[in-house]
Amino acid sequence: MKVPFKSANILIPKNTDMTKWSVVACDQYTSEPDYWDEVNNIVGSSPSTLRITLPEIYLGSSDEEERIKKINSTMKNYLDNDMFTEYKDSMIYLERTQNDGKVREGLIGMVDLEDYSYEKGSQTLIRATEKTVIERIPPRMKVRENALLELPHIMILIDDPEKNIIESLKHEVTNEDMVYNFDLMQKGGHIKGYKLSKNSMDSVISKLESLADQENFDKKYTVSGKGVLLFAMGDGNHSLATAKACYEKLKETMSEEEYLNHPARYALVELVNLHSSALEFEPIHRVIFNTNPLVYCPVTEDYNYVEECLDNILTQTQILAENDGKFPNGEDGYNARVLYGGGVVANSDDKGSSLIGDGLAGAIFSFPDLKTDKTRTRIIIFATDNDVSGNETILLKDACALCYKNNINMACK
To answer: What percent of the chain has pLDDT over 90?
Structure first.
């Protein structure tokens, strides 16, 4: 089977301070304007991707249109001034040493958007692993559709437990193949990039073809009648969805021969092995509370159970919506009430008390290894109407102090 990954024409800046050039423009800093102020001070007047990308923090800002115009003009200026060395038909093997010392290995190339879909139930070779929020695509299209350069932060995962495809490339490159080697700003670690030989690129494609083989896929995952999932989105889901949307829009104006040979058919990505020791996957669970918190969706890898929990919550809220916020009489109402409020409603047939501080504290102490593992990232998305009913054991301000003490990030809805 022909795999939807191939070499690309990759541009690397020349005679440029690469630490200032490389910027992480992703959503983990969306709510941190101070971070971007610091980046701006570091970059100064030097050439930088900061000047040719639109970080998510600025999406929807009052000066968004002006920023996009400036991005397009700066791209043109960089190209006109011959800023780049072009590596034609290339793949780049990279080693990124993270700030924690772990090394994440990756492979830069481009994917064929003809083999990608973000639609639920898709059987394409490249698929989304999370729901794609369609409303997020149009603002990103404004940035991409007139851009002369592509600067993606798209990570796609492959399932290679033997580590034969990407990790093995370290044995096929030498210092002579190195095209960059520099420190990343803002505690980003260090990165090295190596241009692969044609033999190495051919070997990568051959190994990916084996992963994409239907018979191998069925045997590996003990399935039948399912399309091969070769590439699963790891990060940058909406960036790839935007590339797809721009390509589909362009196809409406071209003949089939034209759009199949147009560069917009492809998107630059980084392939990473799902089994990389540098990747850490943090589970999400949901806690609902009135007097005492109840774990509705526990930390688990049983995704069918997670879906069952979420379906139950949806059913309960629909019953409430259809009955003016109350559970109806009868067996259905009783069962929904037990699912909805079991363990959280006290001394009330309808609503119960609402102890916000206690609920937040319960969520805090539901984190495993809270006291012994200080390195994990912990986030609470806290949804409340701020209407306290009853006598709190822990005040909200004290619960917030516990978040701070335990280095827990909290987003309020």
So the answer is: 54
Give the amino acid at 26. Answer: C
The mean pLDDT of 152-178, rounded to a whole number, is 96
Count Cβ atoms below 10 Å from residue 104 Cβ, excluding itself.
20
Give the pLDDT confidence of 234-285 residue by residue, as tens digits. 988 889 999 999 999 999 999 999 999 999 999 999 999 999 999 987 766 6
Which has the closest alpha carbon to 153: 272, 26, 67, 59? 26
Question: Residue 45 is encoded by which pair of tokens?
Answer: 């007047």
Residue 58's pLDDT is: 84
The strand ranges marked E within 243-335 are 266-273, 286-289, 293-297
CB of 74 within 8 A of CB of 151? no
**pLDDT-wise least confident of 86-90, 192-196, 315-319, 369-373:** 315-319
d(CA 132, CA 312): 22
Burial (CB count within 10 angstroms: exposed 0-12, middle 13-18, buried 19+), residue 27: middle
Note the helical H segments in 83-227: 137-144, 198-212, 214-221
The tokens for 269 are: 């990505």
DSSP string over 285-311? -EEEESSSEEEEE-S-S-HHHHHHHHH
CA Rg, the chain, in Å? 25
Give the DSSP per-residue string, 68-104.
HHHHHHHHHHHHHTT-EEEEEEE-EEEEEE-TTS-EE
Using the CB atoms, write b or e for 306-329: b if 16+ within 10 Å.
beebeeebeebeebbeeeeeebee
pTM of model > 0.85: no
pLDDT of 67 strictly over 80 = yes
Q: Which long-range contacts (CB under 8 A, 24 or more apart) does 318-324 make?
A: none
Contact 49, 75 (CB under 8 A): no
- Helix %, strand %, coil % of the chain (to 5): 40, 20, 40
